[in-house]
Amino acid sequence: MESYIEFASYYDSLMYDVDYRSWYGFLKEILEKEGISYSSVLEMGCGTGNITEQICRDEKVKSVTCFDLSEEMLVIAKQKLKGIPNLEILRQDMTQMSIKKHYDLVLSCCDSINYITDEESLKKVFESTYSLLNDGGTFLFDINSYYKLSEIIGDNTFTEDRDGIFYVWENEYESDSEQCNFYLTFFIEDEQSGKYSRFDEHHVERAYRSEKILELLKESGFEDVRIYCDFDFSKDCKDRAERIFFLCKKE
Known about the structure:
- With 251 residues, the chain is of the alpha/beta class.
- The protein has 2 domains: 6-144 and 209-249, 3-Layer(aba) Sandwich (Rossmann fold); 148-206, S-adenosyl-L-methionine-dependent methyltransferases (N-terminal domain of TfIIb).
- Helix content is 27%, strand content 34%.
- It has 7 helices and 11 strands.
- The strands form 2 sheets. Strands 3-2-1-4-5-11-10 form a 7-stranded mixed sheet, sandwiched between helices.
- The chain is globular, with a radius of gyration of 18 Å.
- Residues 41-137 form the Methyltransferase domain.
- Its EC number is 2.1.1.-.
């Protein structure tokens, strides 16, 4: 079962509580704190373009390339970002990138990295990203933490009913593979008939420990890596962080 097919049409409605402006604001704070300058940006796994929209509003940014694997998500992104100058939108697989340009900054947000479920493929992503960066460039990404996927989401079930959309989100954590399976069932109300139609999607995220991410980054050429977490500069990232940010510099 593929991911982000029918779900793409309802993604933004269901992510109504995510403040993307504040999300990108935190990324900018990290970059400013580290004294990093940038004007060309690549965003990997852009989805429907919510973070992309914020990148394009950044006065420091002169050109943006973004890509996603889901054609359905990109249809929405293209509508949302229509008319923005110096923006290139591509359909690419993160594990098989074929991009000729180089960038000052590469971003991957909203736990896109967790969708790379085997270590060799993730190392390949890191190596490709390293090669796409200009000298002195920066790779900044976030993950759902091992703690969040294994204990908070874990084997729990969540439901929501709002605005004609009811969904059940069942989760199954596999400790051997360190993978969390998301089984999503949606019921969508037809406004005219009042009847509901159903569709299902299956998503898988790998629960990576920070130590493994750091190991793979180092093997890929990133020697200088800083860690932040949970949108809070004062938090100790060893203390049950749920979202971890990695800032990686290419020397």
